[in-house]
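#struct-help
A.M.: can someone run this one for me? Single chain, 346 residues.
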Amino acid sequence: MSTRQEVFGTLPDGKEITKFILSNSNHISVEIINYGGIVTAVNLPDTNGLIKNVCLGFDRLEDYTSGHPYFGCIVGRVANRISNASFKLDGVEYRLAKNENGRTHLHGGNIGFDKVVWDAEPFASEDVWGITLKYMSEDGEEGYPGELDVTVVYSLNEEDELTINYKAETDAPTPVNLTNHAYWNFAGAGSGKILDHVLKLNCDKKLAGDEHLIPTGAITNVANTPYDFRKAKPIGQDIQEVGGYDDCFVINREADDDDLVKAAEVVDPASGRGMKIYTTKPGIQLYTGNFLDGIRGAGGIYNKHDAFCLETQFHPDAVNKPNFPSIILEPGETYHHITVHQFFVD
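D.P.: on it. Structure tokens below:
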């Protein structure tokens, strides 16, 4: 195994951005930059040993800084949507940026964790190589209360597991819901639709949503609906009935269990490349690239349904839905979230 680093680009203010490349002896490598904590590439062999990048992204820093649909980034302070871009905490109303359709707060606001420069330090042990990212989010940043000290550790091991370990501490009560927003196509980024990818979710239920993709608060059974992935099926099998997936599924687990649980398994039958996802969080958002619209990225052009996301997280809009698991972090507590992406060739 090894880790390398190289200059990825320079920001307008002169700050240099570094790319870290983690690789193991099975010819798997993961590329991460300290701008947004973005995973820019994940290179995997197929059944014939052909290596391709399966994670959508760009080759140039300028393409990230000029705006993109959250390719591969760390999302926070609160991932996903907050209705009316506001919430109440201890009797105080907090108003946030309406950065989606002029009504909804999405993925942390105008300058979320995806657009900041993280302090980065590579590390190595006998069988794990990785990078530790740190960021201090100031009190009032993007409208959120409290100073939030965040650490995210990416690591790759010889078992072909990419682990993301998130921790955060605060000096005042604040909502926290962190995730990674990687877009996957196991045939290779830029290779076309992911509708033939076969997906299985360990989820009997999903959150009901309104026309603006905001949870209503209801939790529904997926059985005998287009959202039923309890048995493996192609992503495209029922997609026309819903137009595309952008839904949070409830992972099957004991209510008080915060151990790693298998949430999803997906494979591209043509290449044999696949991934299993394990997480400590209660939800997983399936998004099928519904709004990709001809973006030129590494490997080609990205269009609608050319990738999917599986974002492990707390439930969206939990700050406004008292029946959802709370995302409020209190002083003296530690937010902790682990997600493991276990790659395989079938």
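A.M.: thanks! The mean pLDDT is 97.
D.P.: also worth noting: The radius of gyration is 19 Å.
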